[in-house]
Specification:
It is a single chain. By secondary structure, the chain is mainly β. It is built from no helices and ten strands.
Amino acid sequence: MAETYRLTLAPQPPASGTLTTASPGVSVQAAEGATVTLARSRGAESRAAGVGPLGWVSVASVPASAERLRLTLSREGDEVRVQLVVARKAGDDLLRYEGEVFATPGEWLPLWQPAGGAQETGHRTYSTRRDDDSLWLRVETVAGAD
């Protein structure tokens, strides 16, 4: 029987002693072997798509930026193998990559972080920074899911 997992995606893992107004992330449940696809888009651009037979111009509205993440899970001994496909669009630029990570259930894994994202510890930080360009994944085994 296939195991069931809870996938939690967040801009950063929760830290003790941290106060934040940021969204805690999103959680979904998936069975082993299932594929989960998540997508988001921001902004809009209008583009002329072509001229019809009567001279009409068709204008399409497309997102200014968009991201899609596809995750597929399988069990490998004590770890969970997560195959991922990432597609990101910003303006006319498109980035797509595939990879895999191995997660111990309950562990937070960075899928991507902003450039220069060095971790600082041991002090308080007060800021209005956003972690929109950072994504972490936590895989947990769901007990008793049938």
